[in-house]
Write a structure and sequence with these properties.
heterotrimer; A alpha/beta (about 350); B alpha/beta (about 250); C alpha+beta (about 70); B: about 250 residues; alpha/beta; Rossmann fold; 7-stranded mixed beta sheet; two-stranded antiparallel sheet; 10 helices; about 40% helix; C: about 70 residues; alpha+beta; Alpha-Beta Plaits; two-stranded antiparallel ribbon; about 15% helix
Chain lengths: ~350, ~250, ~70
């Protein structure tokens, strides 16, 4: 049994990262993620790691780039405006094939937006983390415990793929306190330092080059390799939860905080006899295409995209799989206005009773 | 009587630099010092963007190539996790004094224990000779075709003067590579910076005044004279900060 | 002894300019990259000061104290 603690989501992420082997963090203050750097500022030195408060998000992600190049498990965290600034460095991480964990505790946008929670960065996370046409695996936990589990193992994916991993979680989940069970510390030695890194602690005795710049035709080959990797993710790495889907006629699609609020509304509607279920993507990229594509559309009467942002951002990904076999509705709140049980319940009720023609 | 043998840290081929470019001389000097210090396998070159990136194919130590201006940030990540390494960032003036101004000043201010070697040739060489933050007043470039006008473009940034004002740096010095005397002093300065780093004394900064025959539209030999009469009048060579000088006095 | 690795030379002329004994000059033949490269006109006058090597951007000049032969 792991160790149980009552923690804020942000703190749970920080502790899980340390236990998952993180030994370097660089970041810049921004609400609502500040508990992550605050926690790591004292926690990392305890385990022989390094914490740096960067002069900007731009500098911070490049510090992570440097640490990662040495084979150190490195991370940064921020919120939407800061992730935009990190876009340069994330693109360079992908180009130089460097693993890293990037956490986005998202808030309302666009622009400076709001410091209140929102799910307004889905498109940025899944489609456009930076220039040049690349993807990172995107995890979207809906509880502190799930965040712990995903963060703890994030470097398994990042190092396997030599590619950054993004954890996208909104400010609600970052700040509510929940009981979490913490896994044991991963004890990594110099022998675990990847061979491709610029470290010499693993005994490497030949020259190493790590670069985000390639000459043709090498770059095209790198792009092709990335394309193959993204395809493999769809086969091997999709994480998804199906909730009451066996007989569902109305399918809610929601991730993160929206999935938790939706669950309450779905249970109320079930008590009233409405066959509502939910598909919850845990990986937003790779997106759980098959779960949506392979639904029995003779039974499914409607898809409802519930997100804490307006307009819904996941809708196009859903529509590509539904292929007009069912109407797609959307419901959301945004700009710091939170989804609540009653709001989601009433919106779903209107749809399942045929009162909504906003398909 | 003296000897000189080319370090095997350089590829056994000509550099990618233009004829007479002092980037290649600077690279050669660094390789000489690292070899003398026996740090070939321990050194790590953080390579910036610009002509300095040509070293990626020329430099046979460990190389980390990074985004434009971010070398001091990346070097921070390298050195904080691997303090035993001899880490140096090699940056040009556009990279260091324009897009990377926040990164260089902040790394210097934190006293990061690595060395930044700053090649200052007053132009963006790689992109074709645009105005740099260090371009001299009146100097013609592809974006200041009538000469740099301070009324709209400000004044050339003096990085040694700025950085030497900070409390943290251990060594800040500027040398000109256009004469045997300057080259000899630069070599000694680079060696001193590396030795201070290896002793854990903190941030060291060596500015090397270099040239750009191609974009200055001068022959290599004429660039050396231009440096005497123009560059070095504004960017005055010298040691701007040296914590060991204080120790020697005390 | 001064050995000029002509294959590295780019004909910048720095070695010729700074030789204190004025015994280096640009030769009349080109290397395979098309650059003229320096030749030493009077090896007996060389004091192996290595200034030529120190000023060579490419490290194309090797200087050792041993005598030629």
């Amino acid at each position: 049994m792991g160790e149980k603690r009552f923690m804020k989501g942000n703190e749970a992420i920080a502790e899980a990262a340390v236990r998952g082997g993180c030994r370097f963090f660089a970041g810049y203050p921004i609400t609502p993620q500040n508990e992550i750097p605050e926690y790591l500022s004292w926690r990392l030195p305890e385990v022989g790691g390094a914490y740096v408060q960067g002069e900007s998000e731009v500098a911070s992600i490049n510090m992570v780039y440097g640490a990662s190049a040495m084979g150190t498990r490195a991370m940064t965290s921020s919120s939407g405006p800061g992730i935009s600034l990190k876009a340069e460095g994330i693109s360079y991480l992908a180009a130089a094939m460097l693993p890293a964990l990037i956490v986005n505790i998202s808030r309302g946008g666009p622009g400076l937006g709001s410091i209140q929670p929102a799910q307004s960065d889905y498109l940025q996370a899944t489609k456009a983390l930076g220039h040049g046409g690349f993807h990172a695996m995107v995890f979207a936990p809906n509880s502190a415990q799930e965040a712990v589990d995903l963060v703890y193992n994030a470097w398994d994916y990042a190092e396997r793929d030599r590619n950054p991993v993004l954890v996208l979680m909104d400010g609600c989940l970052g700040n509510i306190m929940e009981e979490v069970e913490l896994p044991p510390m991963k004890e990594l030695s110099d022998e675990d330092i990847p061979e491709w890194s610029l470290s010499r602690r693993n005994g490497r005795d030949y020259q190493g080059n790590i670069t985000p710049i390639y000459t043709e035709p090498i770059l095209e080959g790198i792009n092709m390799m990335s394309g193959e990797m993204y395809k493999a993710w769809e086969e091997d790495d999709v994480k998804v939860e199906e909730f009451l889907m066996d007989d569902a006629e109305y399918v809610v699609v929601a991730y993160g905080i929206a999935s938790r609020v939706s669950k309450e509304a779905i249970l109320r509607l079930r008590e009233e006899g409405f066959k509502v279920g939910m598909i919850r993507p845990i990986t937003l990229f790779p997106f759980p295409k098959k779960n949506l594509h392979d639904l029995d559309y003779d039974r499914v009467k409607a898809i409802i995209d519930v997100e804490m942002t307006i307009p819904a951002q996941m809708r196009d990904d859903i529509a590509l799989q539904v292929m007009e076999r069912a109407p797609i509705y959307e419901y959301g709140r945004s700009g710091g206005m939170l989804l609540d049980d009653d709001g989601v319940y009433e919106a779903l009720k209107e749809i399942v009773t045929g009162g909504n023609d906003n398909g | 009587m003296a000897e000189y043998h080319r370090s095997d840290m350089l590829a056994a081929a000509p550099s990618g630099y233009c004829p007479g470019c002092l980037h290649s001389l600077a690279t050669r000097l660094i390789s000489d010092v690292i070899t003398e210090l026996g740090q070939q396998d321990n050194s790590l070159n953080v390579i910036s963007v610009g002509c300095s990136a040509l070293n990626l194919l020329y430099w046979s130590g460990d190389n980390l190539s990074v985004a434009h201006g971010r070398a001091p940030a990346a070097a921070t990540g390298v050195k904080r996790t691997n303090p035993e390494r001899l880490v140096f960032a090699y940056q040009g003036d556009g990279d260091l004094a324009a897009i990377g101004l926040a990164e260089i000043m902040s790394a210097a201010n934190r006293g990061e224990n690595f060395t930044v070697i700053f090649a200052n040739n007053q132009t963006y060489g790689m992109t074709g000779g645009q105005m740099a933050p260090t371009t001299l007043i009146g100097q013609k470039t592809t974006t200041t075709v009538y000469g740099r006008d301070p009324a709209t473009t400000g004044y050339p940034l003096k990085m040694c003067e700025l950085i030497s004002q900070l409390p943290a740096p251990a060594y800040v010095a500027r040398f000109a590579l256009n004469s045997p005397k300057g080259v000899r002093e630069a070599r000694a300065g680079i060696k001193k910076a590396f030795e201070l780093q290896l002793a854990g004394k903190g941030f060291t900064f060596v500015e090397l005044l270099t040239n750009c025959p191609t974009n200055w539209h001068l022959s290599p030999l004429d660039t050396l004279e231009y440096m005497n009469t123009n560059t070095m009048q504004y960017f005055v060579p010298g040691v701007y900060k040296d914590i060991t000088a204080k120790e020697a006095q005390a | 002894m001064v050995v000029i690795n002509d294959s590295l030379c780019k004909n910048c002329g720095y070695c010729v300019k700074f030789c204190p004994k004025h015994i280096l000059e640009m030769g009349k033949t080109r290397n395979k990259r098309g650059h003229f490269y320096p030749v030493m006109t009077d090896t007996d006058k060389c004091i192996t000061c290595a200034i030529c090597a120190m000023m060579c951007p490419e490290g194309a000049i090797d200087v050792s104290e041993e005598k030629e032969g």
